[in-house]
Amino acid sequence: MRRCSALLISLILAISAQANDASSPPSKPIKQASASAKEEASAPKEKEKETRKSSKEKESKESKDAAKDAMAADELAVKIAERLALLRKEKDDVARASTRAVARSPAYVAPVRKVTPAKPKEGSEHGSSAIIAAMGGHGAVHWSYDGEGGPTNWGKLNSANAKCDIGDRQSPIDIRDGIRVDLEPINFDYKPSGFNVIDNGHTIQVNVAAGNYISIMGRNYELLQFHFHKPSEERVNGRSFDMVVHLVHKDADGKLAVVAVLLERGKAQNIVQQIWNNLPLEKNLALAAPTAIDINQLLPEKRDYYTYMGSLTTPPCSEEVLWMVMKETVEISSEQIAIFGRLYPMNARPLQKTAGRLIKESR
Ligand SMILES: [Zn+2]
């Protein structure tokens, strides 16, 4: 009986090992196994193989003894069958759970909303991006501004980026021939806020604490983050600018509104300096700034603007984004441009077709 048990236990261990793939926690079944099986489990694999091999050789000899122990073996066989059924069920449960987890996980990570400068939440702000998946990674080839992952291939990198290829209201565009009307002023409700800075591999992004809003056309949009492009992605009557800052907002229904502020070479910009001062040393690690930021100081004095419907300018290129591009530019120093240029010499998506879209502008 003892030899027979050893054979059966070897067998159960071998089958258990198969039933348990890498995704299932190995500790659980072993803990539940019998005391003798536990000892077996702790034995080196080589020894286990030998045991199995020699057991096989002795199989014919054992058949005699087996008859004697048939009843006891039957009992053991029932136990083994039960044990295997349990192991398979556990394995299936684990597989199902991990499938659910994958299904739940979004294509990209939402930007960090709450920023506590004094006490940064570690790990929570790899915010690459954003809302924008913008900045999220998809597939083997990561999207970029040149080479294999460049703008002409964004749509092919991942099916989630299809709009980059087939969308018909994409951004950026060359803003021209706008209809001059009395545009409703954008109501900016920005206040000094905690912030963190992240180099997400595509741009420098600033995640701001909750509580900054714009309202326009009866909707309230909260500021999520802002980031920079060099040179400006949008053009105005064919003209490009040194840089642009995109302030990304979202309303309660998830609709996006981006305010673009064009940056031109001139005197140093206070808010930009505050951000550059807090540039993180490493990519994808948000650095919480010790001070608050007043984003009003990043806006031009005059609040006239161009507006049109477009998209995110980074994968997944989602459309239905309300764009508001400020007409008056804001100055930024050569030194400040150069600092960004060292990190991102060119991070602008090429112009997209306007395709008959209506553009309005403050007259
Ligand atoms: Zn942008």
Automatic annotation (TrEMBL):
Q: Report the sequence similarity comment from the record.
A: Belongs to the alpha-carbonic anhydrase family.
Under the heading Pfam families, the entry gives: Carb_anhydrase
Assigned keywords, A-Z: Lyase, Metal-binding, Signal, Zinc
N-terminal signal peptide: 1-19
Q: Write down the SMART domains for this protein, in alphabetical order.
A: Carb_anhydrase (SM01057)
Gene3D superfamilies according to UniProt: Alpha carbonic anhydrase
> Compositional bias of type Basic and acidic residues: which residue ranges?
37-68
Keyword Cytoplasm recorded: no
UniProt cross-references to InterPro entries, sorted A to Z:
Alpha_CA_prokaryot-like, CA_dom, CA_dom_sf, Carbonic_anhydrase_a-class
Q: Can you state which reaction this protein catalyses?
A: hydrogencarbonate + H(+) = CO2 + H2O
Against SUPFAM superfamilies, the record matches this protein to: Carbonic anhydrase
Q: Where is this region: Disordered?
A: 19-70
| UniProt keyword Lyase present | yes
Name the species this protein comes from.
Answer: Undibacterium aquatile
Q: What is its EC number?
A: 4.2.1.1
Protein name as annotated: carbonic anhydrase
- Residue ranges of every copy of the Alpha-carbonic anhydrase domain listed in the record: 141-363
